[in-house]
Amino acid sequence: MGQQERHSLNLIGFALPVAAAWMGSAFCAALGLAALALATLGPGEHGTILALKVTARFSFLLFWLAYAAGAMTTLFGPAFEPLKRRGREFGLAFASAHLVHLGLVAWLTYIGHAPARGVFLFFGVAALWTYLLALFSIPRLQKALGSKGWWFLRAVGLNYIAYAFATDFLGYPQFGSFKYLVGYLPFAALSVVGPLLCLAAFVQRAAWLRKTSSRQTG
Q1: What is the DSSP letter of 170?
Q2: Where are the extended beta strands (E) located within 130-177?
Q3: What are the pLDDT digits (tens) for 67-116?
Q4: pTM higher than 0.85
């Protein structure tokens, strides 16, 4: 076995435990938050809804970092590069933490308080995108998909998930209430800022490519 092959195997062996550590930590944190909410209000409807809200916000923060870190690096420079390098780990941590949230949805359904069919469908599609992206973050599958296919999958999937979160956080009707200011406003703001950052970064990269192309052909 050559030196380059041994180096590649070492990198793979290091990357897997790091990703697993992020996923395990995120899952345990979400599980702890859910347990705290259920212990506070009980395992009935009210306690489960509180646990759903808490775990949704925790998983959203992990998603937001995976979603916006690259755009922040493009717009604001290398200070955000460490976040960008951890984009895959943030994404996998989000997928892992969100398993707790989905488990709570199943529990809420089991105790007789199932969400409406339209809610199941809309957020179910977002969950499918979450685990499809997690699946294709595996290097071998990502390579088989190709760079263009992976870009398309990420663009559609991440933006649909971002839209699903925004629909939830922006849909609360009691603007100005204490509950809104604490439980919704910070997350609603992030759900708007994230897509705006991604759009601005896309425009900046497109302008740079156009400028570079015109210099080469000029």
Answers
A1: H
A2: none
A3: 999 999 999 999 999 999 999 999 999 999 999 999 999 999 999 999 99
A4: yes
